[in-house]
Amino acid sequence: MRFSPPSKARLTEGDIAPTLVRLTIPMFFGIIAMIAFNLVDTYFVGQLGTRELAAISFTFPVVMILNSLTLGLGAGASAVISRAIGEGDPHQVRRLTTDALSLSLLIVALMATVGFLTIDPVFRLLGADEQTMPLIHAYMRIWYSGTIFVVVPMVGNNAIRATGDTKTPSLVMLVAVAVNIILDPVLIFGLGPVPRLGIAGAAIATVCARATTFFVALWVLYRREKMITLEIPGLQEGFASWRKILYIGLPVGGTNIIVPLSSGIITSLVASYGTEAVAGFGVGTRVEAFTLTVLFALNSVMSPFVGQNWGAQQYDRVERGIRYSQRFAFLWGGVMWLGLLVCGPQVARVFNPDPMVIATAVLYFSIAPIGYGLQGVLLLSNTCLNVLNRPFHSSLLTVIRVFGIYIPLAYLGSYLFGLQGIFGAFVISNMLTGSASYWWLQRVLRLEVTTS
Questions:
Q1: How far apart are CA 26 and CA 24, in angstroms?
Q2: φ/ψ of residue 15, rounded to 5
Q3: Measured in whole angstroms, how far is the alpha carbon of residue 51 from the centre of its chain?
Q4: Whether the predicted model's global pTM rises above the 0.70 cut
Q5: b/e string for 287-314 if b means 16 or more Cβ within 10 A?
Q6: Which residue has the higher pLDDT, 59 or 95?
Q7: How many CB atoms lie within 10 A of CB 420?
Q8: Is the pLDDT of residue 1 over 50?
Q9: Over residues 394-421, mean pLDDT
Q10: Would you call 189 helix, strand, or coil by DSSP?
């Protein structure tokens, strides 16, 4: 069977700033859709009762870790595929895309097998009691069975984004959210001939919603973009593709796990100031996730932009694109800080009327956003370093930020200044590592251009 060449590099021409804006807007809505996906499950399961809500809450850390590893694999695939597209090598594009999908299938088999065998020990270690374990079993058995619909689409959507198309993956995620919203109440509570399935219904709805992303991603890659080949590679060629993808994917996946881990450590530190402090801190971090969504979206599109232009040896476009994105990160961070400084009390009251909760959230809003700009620079620099085949550099920056600066300073700040010290440690860690990442990326760019 003959294939026409995959789509040409779409991001190596045209004005840079408008191109980045065009790519970022769909990604913004895609990220919002992913956030909404989790909130929908939590809302409907919460209607079943406290025990069911606790059960699904226990599953979040496990699902988050597995998703983090999968996102790392997708990031590795996007980086190498976008560079191959920029180099104008259709054979390598098809080979890398196909091998990335086959690697994801292998990982699915391992994840599902290990997951089934470790449900009891893992969740008992997390603190689940005898009454909650049957509910966790009901959810995770179905979730593990449908892991293929979770893992493969993440890799496939990253391959689609590598072509410069951010609209299709985002639209697919919006459709998945709509499917989840429709199926959740039907399967959880029962409707008409459909029996009440409880928490198992939530798992089935999730798998069905994810299945839509699975089939659409495969259709787009195979039929529209012609990026999947049915040719069976030799062992050496196949392992070479896997090695390229994993060289970036494993460090990125490991780095992704560090973030929720550090969040848990800081939350336990805040807990020493009382339940209201934890609630206020939770409000602050949840609002923060929304305010930084634009930067997360921009960060996602920098991988295909840098990859395609670097592969095409358009080094000047890479440098200007990075410069524009870093300037925007500074601007957005400043705007968000001023906005939360002015509107913080009103925003906090939307979530909880308790004066102590509001006071903690307002304190967070007045301090933490000072570092948003350089936090954005750090995110962007890490992504660019991954695409430039420096994944361990970006991972080291994250490790230094979390374990070398943030957590130690948070404990010291808590001892000296209380909650202000904890929140101030967040700012200092972002400012130091953000500045270091800027310098590090510039050094790598100069070195790569000189040796190319």
A1: 6
A2: -65, 135
A3: 28
A4: yes
A5: bbeebbbbbbbbbbbbbbbbbbbbbbeb
A6: 95
A7: 15
A8: no
A9: 94
A10: helix
Question: Residue 209 is which amino acid?
Answer: A
Give the span between the Cα atoms of 175 and 450, in whole angstroms.
46
210 backbone dihedrals φ, ψ, rounded to 5° = -65, -30
CA distance 32 to 44: 18
pLDDT-wise least confident of 220-224, 235-239, 416-420, 441-445: 235-239
Rounded distance between C-alpha atoms, residue 336 and residue 104, angstroms: 38
Kindly report the length of the chain: 452
Average pLDDT value for residue range 338-365: 88
pLDDT score recorded for residue 429: 96
**Is it the case that residue 360 has pLDDT exceeding 70?**
yes
Burial level of 191, CB count in 10 A (0-12/13-18/19+)? exposed
Question: What span, in angstroms and rounded, lies between the C-alpha atoms of 442 and 438?
Answer: 6
Q: What is the 3-state secondary structure (H, E, C) of 234-250?
A: CHHHHHHHHHHHHHHHH
Closest C-alpha to 217, from 149, 308, 297, 304:
149
Measured distance CA(124)–CA(130) in Å, rounded: 9
Dihedral sign, CA of 143, 148, 151, 154? negative
Q: Residue 204, Cα to own-chain centre: how many angstroms? A: 23
Alpha carbon distance 433, 262 (integer Å): 16
- The tokens 């570092």 sit on which residue? 371
d(Cα 443, Cα 35) in Å, to the nearest integer?
35
Q: How many CA atoms are closer than 13 Å to the CA of 38, on its beta-carbon side?
A: 12
Distance between CA atoms of 344 and 355, rounded to whole angstroms?
13
